[in-house]
Amino acid sequence: MTGAAFRHFLDLGDAGGDAVAAMLNDAIDRKAARAGLPKGAPDADAPLKGRVLALVFEKNSTRTRVSFDIAMRQLGGSVLLLDSASSQLGRGETVADTARVLSRMVDGIMLRTDDHAKIAEMACHASVPVINGLTDQSHPCQIVADLLTVIEHGKALPGLEVAWFGDGNNVLHSILEAAGLFKFNVRVATPAGYEPDRAFVDGARAGGANVTLTQDAGEAARGADVIVTDTWISMGQADAAEKRAAMAPYRVDAALMALAKPNAIFLHCLPAHVGDEVSAEVFEGPQSVVFDEAENRIHAQKSVLLWAFGQLGG
Ligand code: CP
Ligand code: NVA
Predict the structure, then answer these.
(1) Considering only CA atoms, which residue is closest to atom 8 of ligand 2?
(2) Does residue 270 line the site of ligand 1, with CB under 6 A?
């Protein structure tokens, strides 16, 4: 992309509350405007016509890969896929050189990687927008979809009570960033030693969110509007019996759900490990909106893309 203003989307906190609010409004409008169209048909205005986005994966993905592909098609653009196994990244070509080469060939880059420093490095050397498709530290695209899902289910963000169970991981870090931007409250129930990084807790509190850290799952669930969990073992982590044992009391089951508000919803970014972090009864139950959440990755990613390409305010 030459000549036009663009922005990197590395984390929610960098983008800011106005930007994320603009993305949410745009996602709601675009989703409604294209109701009934086949999934691959472009939106009427096809605002990214002619643009190509490189999807670079150093980790597995289903939702992020498919949602960015379909999002670009709906916006009138296209994608190409690179993974570390079949690209020179996997043979040691630097992120800096990859960024400079891709910037000459495509209009934007989405990167899913391990070390968060790599996404910052990509952004530093790219002359096109770079989007964080998940790192070990954060997963901001997921949380735009989650906020959209919460709003669609009739809940206002300010003052919302969100309860997290299990591992203090990348997804939780982005929830905490969103909490600081939109002033909702997060009760985090983890075993000792698996708390989120302190910087994300402090950041949310500095933004005006109440953040409670507890080892008592019941305390976190009581009166919550949103119950959320994620895999106990994230990509790249050792699948240790010790960690699984520590996580077991934080499984979201019917007894835990019953402590939340009667109209509480259950979120999970997926992929789920039913029987581990969530019981089958909750996952398949009436409060679970996980497939709305998955579909919303498309609508959220479209707004992230428009913002990154300088076509959305905020
Ligand atoms: N939630 C999510 O990012 O899913 P994928 O790992 O399948 O992309
Ligand atoms: N915390 C998970 C999220 C997967 C979408 C992981 O990093 O593997």
Answers:
(1) 234
(2) yes
Every domain range in the chain assigned CATH 3.40.50.1370: 12-139+296-308, 154-288
Nearest CA to ligand 2 atom 2: 234
CA–CA dist 17, 24 (Å, integer): 10
Whether residue 94 has its Cβ less than 6 Å from ligand 1: no
User: What does the block give as tokens for 15?
Assistant: 């983008």
Considering the chain, what is the average pLDDT of its residues? 97
From the candidate CATH numbers 3.30.365.10, 3.40.50.410, 3.40.50.1370, 3.40.30.10, the one assigned to the domain spanning 154-288 = 3.40.50.1370
What residues pair up with 161 in beta bridges, in sequence order?
A: 185
Whether the per-residue pLDDT at 296 is higher than 60: the answer is yes
52, with CB counted inside 10 A (0-12, 13-18, 19+), is: middle
- pLDDT tens digits for 37-93? 999 999 999 999 999 999 999 999 999 999 999 999 999 999 999 998 899 999 999
Q: Using CA of residue 212, residue 19, residue 297, residue 69, what is the dihedral sign?
A: negative
Q: Is the minimum distance from the CB of 296 to ligand 1 under 6 angstroms?
A: no
Q: Which residues are within 8 A (CB) of 10 and not within 5 positions of it... i.e. 6 or more apart?
A: 119, 120, 123, 130, 131, 132, 140
The answer to whether the CB of 67 is under 6 A from ligand 2 is: no
List CB contacts of 51: < 8 A, sequence separation 6 or more. 1, 72, 75, 76, 77, 78, 107, 108, 309
- What spacing in Å lies between the alpha carbon of 158 and ligand 1's midpoint? 27
CA 3–ligand 1 middle distance (angstroms): 33
Catalytic residues: 112, 139, 142, 230, 269, 297
Interval between CA 37 and ligand 2 midpoint (Å): 31
Q: What is the CATH number of domain 12-139+296-308?
A: 3.40.50.1370
CA 26 to chain centroid: 17
> Phi and psi of 30, rounded to 5°?
-65, -40
